[in-house]
Design goal:
2 copies of one chain form a homodimer.
Chain A lengths: L5 H6 L1 H4 L3 E14 L2 E7 L8 E6 L5 H8 L8 E11 L3 E13 L14 H5 L2 H4 L3 H23 L3 E3 L4 E2 L11 E3 L10 H6 L8 E2 L4 H12 L1 E9 L12 E10 L3 H22 L1 H10 L4 H10 L3 E4 H9 L17 H12 L3 E7 L15 E9 L3 E8 L4 H10 L8 H5 L8 E7 H9 L19
Parallel strand pairs in A: 3-5, 6-10, 12-13
Antiparallel strand pairs in A: 1-2, 1-4, 2-3, 4-5, 7-9, 10-11, 11-16, 13-14, 14-15, 15-16
């Protein structure tokens, strides 16, 4: 008999009640309460909701119980059971077991025991931590959020673009790229040129830090409205709860859109994906609200229902200076906003998500549109109460000469960016886009406070596992 | 006035006819046919369908025409036009221009001129080739296929997993991994150990060739049913129309499923995504049918409507031996099926997509379930008429000892696979999965015969652009 997903037994119970069903799963808890034995199993189709299997001890011989049932009571054992699904006041539904068999044993060396384990310990067993409520919940919310991203852009006519991971240009110019090579560790060449000539690509290559330049080339290169959603890489040596060397990045690029239109799109997008996950992962978000961040659901509801505010950077500085608040970092025109500043603006002054617009150009990247004041660029960060920046957004500089000047001022090697510059030469158009760090979004939506726990196998400085 | 997508003017013309609309786009063709001037533009929201702008020369002064309209007639110029949308027998709808302005000029050095350009030439200008019908079509079909992949798995309760790109294990054991490092090209160490100890991760690291091992760990590690969809990498030096160094890979992994169930899933999946793209990209597929592969639509219809066949590898060998056909490569039990063999089976014998099941174990990977005959593994390739293998599929070996033996026989370093082996120790379950090379699927669905043309920025041996 084919097995049925446990999620279906709960969701469509009317289809299965009082009928025979077969289920598979891993043992989460078990208890012997004479004359009954209870085993709770999970098969991955639900996060924290387990199916209770009920065994009547008196219906089996002692010998059979000992040889067939007893070994199933250990945490982590995988099993298959057939029985009648019955209604249960406490659990919704339960399975009255008729036959049950072990699929895979789980010896007592199993590292996930009943005692509470720390997240730090769980990170050392990434391959098994997906059996915990925390990771199951995180992975399900992450998956649904990713689908919401794809749905939003597809419904709105964006083309999903697979931009290359291996690249020769450093979009952010931060020099924190990983190098990709097939040369052995002890390859010996006299010159750098010779080394790279003999490498796989015949030139220097590294892992992309952002897909934006390719995204711009595709959009202005004729596709009009595109988005990328893939892994990007930073070889930063930061060992913080917010940094991983490999993270997933969402980057739309929209032709014929100015800064105001991309702000509208950003707001619409964030509300859409949060609303979607609230509708489709309510069980998982309730778990997060209860165990990870009290008030999480209120926070998300607030984002979905508030009209995001906008403030000019210059006005934001004034608000901070007039706040009467003593900040650790000094506030002056030209300063980068620190967490404490952002927090004051979103949590106390505006009390809702906030776009800070028109930052001083020296704080921002070369590709952002230079405003007429000569001092600022048409760039904005969306700051959200409780976490700070969630997307970074800008209109792009479309004027060839201004762009070249900005690159030259930053000592960027123009010869590596000829194709990018071409897009400003052949039918240049106004265009804007934003970048969303997907892993940080998952942190925000789940209340998980360490990025290592929103990816099953995070990559960080000095750690492959 | 905000601009409207050209696709909407065609699709929902009743909402716009006889009203004023504004459009933006790049000039695809233009013609002066006194007393009219016609300009066809494309904004990326349609692939090959352009919007015709109609200008009445007599309504403008000669001077104005010369200074404002003439410069718009060059290929590649970007412009913005406002006017009344009218019905047109030839084009469906057209725009009677009231005002028009240049957004970005396009000098005569523009490499995409009207004369027919070769695909080889277009590959040298990846950033501009998205303005051609071919690439627009390819990118739109690719994007929709990707969305269909996500939709299929989401609707069927799979968790989308972001597995790491940077890894220390070589799933296929083929040794064709790129190395990832932050060591400079001329780093000098006495020992390999010292070199890697001082590298970013403190150990050797490379780019993933397959997400399967992580996928298995996640599925058996508690998530039950997962899929991955991300880039994978092979440092092969093959310079063929089917090889790129960086390609996108779809890999589901399903617990509690045997080889027969994963075959059913594979068939269902392929039919779903092809049906989806036929429904949502009919304009694009008609273009492909007309210009890239005559009979493409028939081919796809056939796949969607036929019941896929199944044959045991051993029987397939017999069929080939009894075919009376002279093959270039000899046919014998134990031989790998060559293109000519696959072609005979799918195109001539079975005349429909075909799963060849139970391959000799020496032809296949260590992780596949060893059948009781001691000679074969529960692996299957789905062969499709006209292209050959499209997915590779297997039940996985769940027995710890058998798995270790298979790895040892292949000289694999067991110490690198301890976590993977753990999944066979702690609640091991039957599980199966498959791998689909997404780029080759796009080739199959579009009829494009070079993989370099289904990715905007392909990465191949000796070529970053």
């Amino acid at each position: 008999m084919k097995h049925t997903d446990i999620s279906k037994l709960f969701q469509n119970s009317e289809d299965y009640l009082d009928r025979e069903v077969t289920v598979c799963g891993w043992v989460r808890t078990s208890a012997e309460v004479k004359p009954m034995t209870f085993i709770q199993i999970n098969d991955g189709t639900t996060s924290t909701k387990n199916l209770q299997l009920t065994i009547h001890q008196e219906r089996i011989s002692d010998e059979e119980y000992k040889s067939n049932i007893k070994p199933l009571l250990s945490l982590g054992v995988s099993l298959k059971a057939t029985g009648i699904l019955i209604a249960s006041e406490r659990n919704g539904v339960e399975l009255e077991v008729e036959t049950i068999e072990m699929l895979g044993d789980c010896p007592s060396t199993y590292p996930l025991q009943k005692k509470k384990t720390s997240v730090e310990f769980l990170r050392t067993i990434p391959h098994l931590r997906t059996r915990t409520n925390l990771m199951k919940t995180a992975m399900m919310i992450r998956s649904r959020l990713a689908y919401a991203v794809h749905s939003y852009f597809t419904q709105n006519g964006y083309i999903y673009l697979h931009t290359p991971i291996i690249t020769d240009s450093d979009c952010e110019g931060a020099g924190e790229m990983f190098r990709v090579t097939t040369q052995p560790w002890n390859a010996s060449y006299n010159t750098e040129e010779e080394y790279f000539e003999n490498d796989y690509f015949g030139q220097k290559a590294g892992l992309s830090v952002s897909c934006q330049l390719e995204g711009e080339m595709a959009a202005v290169g004729g596709l009009g409205r595109i988005y990328t959603f893939g892994p990007t890489f930073r070889a930063e040596k930061s060992d913080t709860p917010k940094h991983v060397a490999e993270f997933w990045h969402v980057e739309p690029e929209v032709c014929f859109a100015d800064i105001n239109e991309i702000i509208e799109i950003g707001e619409d997008f964030i509300k859409y994906i949060i609303r979607d996950v609230m509708e489709n992962c309510s069980e998982q978000l309730s778990f997060c609200d209860k165990f990870l961040e009290k008030g999480l659901l209120d926070k998300l509801n607030h984002v979905v229902n508030s009209e995001f505010a906008r403030v000019d950077y210059t006005d934001a500085i004034e608000i901070l200076q007039n706040s009467g608040r003593k900040f650790e970092y000094p506030v002056f025109w030209g300063c980068d906003l620190q967490t404490e500043h952002e927090k004051y603006l979103t949590d106390e002054h505006f009390k809702r998500p906030l776009f800070v617009v028109n930052y001083p150009k020296d704080l921002k990247s070369f590709y952002m549109k230079q405003n007429d004041d000569g001092k600022t660029v048409a760039a904005t960060d969306l700051l959200v109460p409780g976490i700070g920046e969630i997307i970074g957004c800008s209109e792009r500089e479309t004027d060839y000469d201004k762009l070249v000047n900005a690159m030259t001022a930053r000592n960027m090697p123009l010869e590596n960016y000829q194709k990018y510059l071409d897009t400003r030469k052949y039918g240049s158009v106004q265009h804007s886009g934003f970048g969303l760090g997907f892993d940080r979004l998952v942190m925000y939506v789940t209340g998980i406070n360490n990025i290592r726990d929103v990816l099953q196998f995070p990559r960080t400085y000095q750690h492959i596992y």
